[in-house]
Design a protein that fits this description.
Tscrpt_elong_fac_GreA/B_C, protein biosynthesis, elongated, 156 residues, Tscrpt_elong_fac_GreA/B_fam, GreA/GreB family elongation factor, Chitinase A, domain 3
């Protein structure tokens, strides 16, 4: 990543929005279980520990919600996905050393069932970031170093 605002693909935006919705629902459920914050000292230590745990969970949820909302704002500021060089959100067609070609999406988070998603912090993703069509990249695999040529770059 460049260190500045990074564009966000439609796929990543949808995934973040789904996660935000789930987190907000979870947060509402945790909030309902918390007491009103009064000075009621009638509960035992187990009740107090449970209350503390729910408060900690609420803090965790709030932090993650803020992080995701910030990423959505950053993506909006960054504008559309670039097509002149590989960046987060790019769709990249690469030709591997064995001659096969594959189109991959450079993303921030890999979807569990999406074999075309390559995260920007994976070996191939890192090698592709900032590259242009026609350039050759070298990256590490479990079987050793590999080369691939950037055939073309597209947006979402």
């Amino acid at each position: 990543m460049t260190g500045g605002p990074e564009p966000i693909s439609a796929v990543a935006r949808a995934a973040i929005e789904r996660e935000l919705s789930d987190l907000r629902t979870e947060r509402d459920a945790v909030l309902v279980t918390l007491r009103g914050g009064g000075d009621d000292q009638t509960g035992d230590r187990a009740d107090q520990a449970d209350e503390l745990e729910r408060g900690t969970e609420l803090d965790r949820l709030d932090r993650r919600i803020a992080e995701l909302e910030s990423r959505l704002r950053e993506g909006a500021v960054a504008g559309p996905v670039r097509t002149d060089e590989v960046g987060v959100g790019s769709s990249v067609t690469v030709r591997f050393s064995d001659g096969t070609e594959s189109t991959v999406q450079i993303g921030e988070v890999a979807e569990v069932h999406d074999p075309t998603m390559v995260t920007s912090d994976s070996p191939l993703g890192r090698a592709l970031l900032g590259r242009r069509a026609g350039e050759t990249v070298t990256y590490d695999t479990p079987g050793g170093r590999e080369n691939a040529v950037v055939v073309s770059i597209g947006g979402e």
